[in-house]
Batch of 2 targets.
Target 1
Amino acid sequence: MLRFIRPLRAHTRLASSLLIILALIVAVTVGLAAYNLATASPDTVTTQTLYGAGRPANPYTDSVLYVLNPSNGAVLHTIGPMGAIITGLAVDPTSGIMYGVTGDEIAPYCTLVTVNKNTGAITPVGPETQGCPMADIAFDSNGDLFGFSGSSPRTVYAINKHTGATTSLPDGSTTVSGNEGNGIAIKPGTNRVFVAPDNADGKLYTMTYHSQILSAVQLHGGPNACGSIGIESISALEFNSAGTLYGSVFDENCSYSSGRPSWLVIIDRFSGSIRVLGPSAKTLDAIAFDPPSH
């Protein structure tokens, strides 16, 4: 019997060793998966609803509210006319209410509005008191609203979401150069403000709430439809919950009569590289994600 016990013990030790190795492999695999999830590229498409305001007829007609595909920019659903030219959209993360700002071309001029996400209809909140018109707006994680002026000086303003009043911030004399771009976005969970004041070959600035410029990167790789590359306006910026910076771009060199070709893009905030996701609603001048809880 002793001759058979030793091989049996040897086989038992081998099996135990194999089980330990298998357990280690599983642990390492799970650990790597968790690490990859935690450090995944922010270039990530989420399941959040993406809204856009565009002008399908020509740039001087009322905007239409759409639901867009965040993967390729396509219009998924036409919600309805908005009754004004909307230059910026943002959803309050604390309430789920969508806000917009109007342009200075047709009435209502330079006004903060709320937007019905089911119909597109707007309700005026109140007039902007400085920086008219606001070219784009963005909420921070606390539900405070900020805007980027479309007129000189091109800087960041605080907006009272209850009255529409706009207030220049401390150090508001700090401005950025550029006339064609109109985007502002605030990275979730931070006090970092990103503005694109010029064309798709201009610069993306990182700023504080007080308009202090922290850095700037050169943008490159934008789309082109009707003219020279660089004519395309960065018309809006927006972060999704994963920290991916989206933008809308339309070509300033295209015909007014049929609406300007527009694209949904992702912008690498570190390198300035623009990745075109696809064509979107005509003259897309504003985009906004619903917060994950809404």
Target 2
Amino acid sequence: MNPESLLLTDLYQFTMLQAYFARGMNETAVFEFFVRKLPEQRNFLVAAGLEQVLDHLENARFSADELDWLRDCGRFRPDFVASLADWHFSGDVDALPEGTLCFADEPLLRVVAPIREAQLVETRIINLLQFQTMIAAKAVRCVLAAAGRTLVDFGLRRSHGAEAGLLSARASHLAGFTGTATVLAGKLWGIPLFGTMAHSHSWQFPQGGIQRGETPEQAMYRELHEEIGLLPEHVSILGRTKDWLRYDVPTHWVRREWRGSYRGQKQIWFLLRLVGRDSDVSLRACDHPEFDAWRWNTYWVSLDAVIEFKRRVYEQALNELARFLNADHRRERRPHLHEHANRPLIESVSKE
């Protein structure tokens, strides 16, 4: 699809143009874009989309292929279609600067041009302006509600088409969003890019909290069953960390209602050996599954896939527990019939 094609318009625009042509009408016309009324609780908009409108008006032309199609479709007179060969926009545009607050009955844009030019561009102008203005008006309310917090557009995959996703990134940044995840928006408009990583490339060891009255070992067995479905008979404990390992959680990762009362976690880590079967692992042992999938990893896994504020604790725990792993490897191992059995597992339990 070519979004700059002059065929990207309503049929009635061409019907009107043919009528103007038949009557020799090409006087100057004035078209204005405005919103008639707004809800009381949403009584302002943010003008956006002007750059794309001007690009369209400067570059829009009919291609030979488009003129052939108009001639062959059977709706229009050949002499009318021939008159479109040299069509270009020669009028003037007055508009509010992008990012300007605007209100009901206030023109965002005015086109002054020969009537066949003003008529033909009407649909695309409305399409470009109303969409980005709508997004910017929503985004600026998010900015006001966020009160200085970082806001990032991640809307491309849920947008109604590629152009909508791209222009949403632009309009939201114009309204005050910090950045976007849409890479092309970064290239086109210099919008700062943000991103996390796919769930398929991020991971953590099973972990959970200690309930009142539980020992760390009891909490470990409970969480092990809730998160990956294993029972005490499926594992043996090789070792645990001597002391609590602590990490702080950045403020922007903390739920708003917890801020001021929650700082982070302290954890006891356990090194376990699986003595059951792989098939004993179940990620649906509770009503609220923690994980989407599981797999075996080598012990010294890359910490790049661990969320940044947990990496130091992961590294500390792996280093401390390695001595138990090495001691276990030196023991004489009994034959076992289960494939992948006797693999080491790591579990942590925490106090907040």
